[in-house]
Amino acid sequence: MARLRRNSPVLETARQRLAGLKAIVPPPNMGALTIEGVEAEVKEYSDTQASYNLKLATLDDDTNQLDDLEQRLNDLNQRVLAAIKAQYGPDSSEVELVGGVRRSDRKKPARTTKTPATA
């Protein structure tokens, strides 16, 4: 399942405010705040968010590759066990050597007896 990408309503608000600030003629005097400073902050946050989302996409791809490899390895494990059972038999000690359970070592199902219903 893909991870949710990050989006920011604060970034959208900052972009709208920046566009509004740039539209004001003559530029407003905001003291220590400058349009260039606000624009730099918006760009820094936007770049960091884009980098974060790119890392998530890469991580999703890596996760998908790991899942595929894990499935292939699981299939290979099953094929190895099946090949050993076919060659040596399902009750051989070789089956135990490769991590299987011998047929004779499996627990037998317990029979349940029905009790007659009394009326």
Model description:
The chain has helices at 9-23, 35-88, 93-97. The longest helix is centred in the middle third of the chain and has 54 residues, at 35-88. With 119 residues, it is mostly helical. It is built from three helices and no strands. It is elongated. The two termini are 57 Å apart. The protein has one domain.
Topology (SSEs and partners):
Elements: H1 9-23, H2 35-88, H3 93-97
Helix pairs in contact: 1-2
Give the class from helix and strand content and strand pairing: mainly alpha
Strands, count = 0
Determine the mean pLDDT: 93
What is the general shape? Answer: elongated
Biggest β-sheet: count, sense, barrel?
none
Separation, N- and C-terminal Cα atoms: 57 Å
Gyration radius, in Å: 33 Å
Give the number of helices: 3
Domains, number = 1
Strand fraction equals: under 5%
| Poorly predicted residue ranges | none
Relative helix content: 55-70%
List the secondary-structure elements in sequence, H or E: HHH
